[in-house]
Amino acid sequence: MRQSAVIRERPPAGSVGPVAWLRTHLFGSWWSTAVTLLLGYLLLRWGLGFVDWAVVNAIWSVPAGENGQPDATICRTAEPAGACWAVIGDKARFILFGRFPYESQWRPALCVAIFLALFGISASRRCWRRELLLIWTVALSAIGVLMWGGVLGLEFVPEDMWGGLPITLILATFGLAFAFPLSVLVALGRRATDLPAVKILCVLYVELIRGVPLVSLLFMASVMFPLFMPVGMNPDKLLRAQVAFILFAGAYLAEVVRGGLQALPKGQYEAADALGLSYWQKTGLIILPQALRLVIPPLVNTFIGFFKDTSLVLIIGILDLLTAGKVAMADPVWQGVGTEIYLFLGAIYFAFCFAMSKYSRRLERSFGRARNR
Predict the structure, then answer these.
(1) 3-state secondary structure of 289
(2) pLDDT digit of tens for each residue in the chain (373 aa)?
């Protein structure tokens, strides 16, 4: 039996490739061409101006004055004016680590490295095992030892001296680590029709927390909460802020998880019941994995917003990353030099938020391929 050879012809030239993409998306019509050229001109002009300010005319270092402090006069009188990146070199350690003792700043730097390694390990699906919980416990314990000290020959550093990037990572990491399980329980409680008391409590919690801004929760945790504590018991303000963040994030995440539970087809619940599974087996093995897979984008969106909301702790006197940058700008030596610090802070926030966004997209594609098999 003869088999006819299949002749594969190449697509016509100009219908595929970069030229075809440009013709289709950017130069498909006269108005598309005009908009493309106008935006291209504006982006090129802005880009060249930014490079000229940030690189060509930038000031990377300044001489020391008579008192040993940097002399930033050149940054205010230079012509043509350019970025004064010398402020980052002078204030970077204060912005990143706050008032932590200078000679011991290797400790918060190591804590940041541990956080990053912990995030990287947790992002790999091959590490999603029970051992990961042990890794988190050991890593967070090591971070506590490094930040507090008082053991292993390390100098004790009170929490009032902490600041900068470690504070932001501590608030965000511990907040999300405790808020996510809380949100799952609250979301399940809101759907527990056979437990009306639990459902009412969960509804009241979510509506109350979502009905007030985070600033009010932080204020209440810092000012009003100690008034209700027994005499002699006064938790530090970092712990109070952490509790406020957990409660705030838990309420918003609970609604996201509840949306995933409602989007799941009813047949999944009926199939689990037909298998004779208990409530917790059905929930943990069938319902929750599918529901959480459906709400990955809004979950990550909430994580990103929560990470940026940690900057609000400045109202209760905690020196987070953004607050440390503002304090650095208040230094009389660097008066009038603030844009560079804001760009430095923006780059740090963008790096973390962009990494979360990219990981979310990769996770969606991975789960999408698994569903299509």
Answers:
(1) helix
(2) 455 555 666 666 556 677 777 777 788 788 888 888 999 999 999 999 899 988 888 888 888 777 777 877 888 777 777 888 888 988 899 999 989 998 999 999 999 999 999 998 988 878 888 888 899 899 999 999 999 988 888 899 988 889 899 999 999 999 988 999 999 999 999 888 888 898 999 999 999 998 888 888 888 888 777 777 776 666 778 888 898 899 999 999 999 999 888 888 888 888 888 888 888 888 888 888 888 888 888 889 999 999 999 988 888 888 889 999 998 888 888 887 888 999 999 999 999 999 999 988 888 887 765 555 5
203: number of CA atoms within 13 Å, CB side? 10
Do 170 and 314 belong together in one domain?
Answer: yes
Residue 265 one-letter amino acid: P
Query: What's the CA angle centered on 301, arms 300 and 305, to 5 degrees?
Result: 115
- Evaluate whether 200 touches 206 at the Cβ level (below 8 Å): no
Q: Is 260 exposed, middle or buried (0-12, 13-18, 19+ CB in 10 A)?
A: buried
Per-residue tokens: 251:
């309420």
Place of tokens 């319902």: 287
Based on the fold, state whether residues 189 and 331 are members of the same structural domain. Answer: no
Q: Which alpha helices (H) appear in the chain, and where do they start and end?
A: 18-25, 30-51, 73-77, 86-97, 106-123, 130-148, 165-190, 196-210, 214-219, 237-263, 266-274, 279-282, 288-294, 296-309, 321-329, 339-372
Q: What is the rounded end-to-end Cα distance, in angstroms, of the chain?
A: 34
Question: Left if phi > 0, otherwise alpha if psi is -120 to 50, otherwise beta: which for 231?
Answer: beta
Domain for residue 23, yes or no? no
Residue 38 lies in a domain: no
Residues 123 and 133 in one domain: yes
Distance CA 138, CA 118 (A): 10
* Pairwise CA distance, residues 118 & 134, whole Å: 12
d(CA 115, CA 140): 8
Residues 309, 324, single domain; the answer is: no
